[in-house]
Design brief:
With about 160 residues, this protein is mostly helical. It has two domains: about 1-80, no CATH class; about 85-135. The protein is built from four helices and three strands, in the order E-H-E-H-E-H-H. Strands 1-2-3 form a three-stranded parallel sheet, covered by helices on one side. Helix 1 links the parallel strand 1 (about 1-5) and strand 2. The protein is elongated. The protein starts with a strand and ends with a helix.
Length: about 160
């Protein structure tokens, strides 16, 4: 569990200890960043990492139970980073998603246009081939009729 709650860690730990929640099996390990400020009304101790360790080590975890392992956390390393780097990365990702979405939509529209063009072409070509003649007289519409079939029809 990571706890970096800007001074609220002391009252939070106090309440979790009251509920016996800071025991291995419930929370095996916790990373705490301690702050020099925050409410300590119920805490009644220093605002230090050492005080957090002491209270958690003394947790009532029942017979044979072990308290949560506590590790110090310094999560202020981002101060050394480029403050705009995360924004730039997020913006680049958003642009990438936007481009991919547009390409996908245009690709779908392209396929639809090709299919519509092909359908129109074959409809026009079919009309030109059969203009002025009855469709029933065309070989392509006499499905299943073979020369043998027509020979038996003529013999009757």
């Amino acid at each position: 569990m990571k706890v970096d709650i800007e001074g609220a860690e002391y009252e939070t730990v106090f309440n979790m200890l009251q509920k016996k929640a800071l025991c291995q099996g419930t929370v095996d390990e916790a990373f705490f960043e301690s702050h020099a400020w925050g409410d300590v009304t119920n805490w009644q101790d220093d605002r230090t990492f050492a005080a957090l360790q002491k209270h958690i080590a003394a947790a009532d975890c029942g017979l044979g139970g072990k308290p949560t392992k506590v590790t110090d956390l310094d999560d202020e390393t981002f101060k050394n980073d480029d403050p705009q780097a995360e924004w730039k990365a997020a913006e680049a990702k958003a642009i990438q998603i936007e481009v991919l979405t547009a390409m996908r939509e245009k690709g779908i529209m392209f396929v639809i246009m090709i299919l519509a063009s092909l359908a129109a072409f074959f409809m026009i070509k079919g009309y030109q081939n059969y203009a002025g003649e009855s469709l029933l007289n065309k070989d392509s519409f006499n499905l299943g009729r073979t020369k043998a079939f027509e020979a038996t029809q003529d013999a009757k």
